[in-house]
Amino acid sequence: MATPSQPEPSATARGEDESGDKMSLFEHLVELRKRLVYSAMAIAIGFVIGFSISKKVIEFIVQPMVKALREAHYNDKLIYTHPAGFVNLLITLGFYLGLVIALPVVLYQIWQFIAPGLYKHERKAVLSFIVSSVILFLCGIAFGYFILLPYVLKFLISFQGPFEPLISINEYFSLILIVLFGLGIIFELPVLIFCLSLFGIVTPQWLWRNLRYAILIITIVAAIVTPTPDATTMLVFMAPMVGLYFLGIGVSWMVFRRKRQREMAREGAQ
After folding, report:
1. Percentages helix, strand, coil for the chain, rounded to the nearest 5?
2. Picking from 81-95, 134-148, 150-164, 209-223, which range would have the lowest pLDDT averaged per residue?
3. Most buried one in 71, 141, 164, 178, CB count within 10 A?
4. Which residues neighbour 35 within 8 Å (Cβ) at sequence distance 6 or greater?
5. pLDDT by residue (tens digit) across 127-170?
6. What is the Cα–Cα distance from 219 to 238, expressed in whole angstroms?
């Protein structure tokens, strides 16, 4: 007696499970070299563009420092103490700007290299991960420049004394780079929680139960990272970190909700 044949998976199910074309090791190496060459060319072009606009960018990034000096009734001119100091700053800033300008192209090349080997649902997850990371990083930089940095500089310059500050443009650039880059990294907290939730390391219930400890850790980190000892600046620094933690709880809840839906759908199909 013939046994009933198993139902074939639908075209949609097959499409979601299908990965890209299989390539040999040599083809992978050739593809990797092509993507690296394109990325290097994008960075080189970005450096040329970044160096050409670096003076305008410097005029923009020094505005918080100039404003703080003017409000404290000091000379608002920044200085450099080495003959090649300003040229070195232009080159360094041009390189960083080149990386930022080339970032979309570099991310696209990375995506083109890894996407063929991923399943459809994995491609969606990785693409969302990259876009979210870039957006949150830029939000962190914007928060640091427009909100936190004016508080920090105003506090540092507010100490009236017998000395007049002579702010080096190179030292100021090092300070602003640390502050902005650090905030950009901190704003990646929801993405980190998303990855941990995806692998089941943390749950939204666990994150909520440990809220008090999270706030304690955030307070310690803010006290260490904040370049000024005043409470106002530390609270300004803490506020987005606490908000990002709550956002991370929401992201974790969404991840586990989708996991439960998939498990229920799988059980229903059986």
Report:
1. 80, 0, 20
2. 150-164
3. 141
4. 109, 110, 112, 113
5. 777 888 889 999 999 998 998 888 888 888 877 677 888 899 99
6. 7
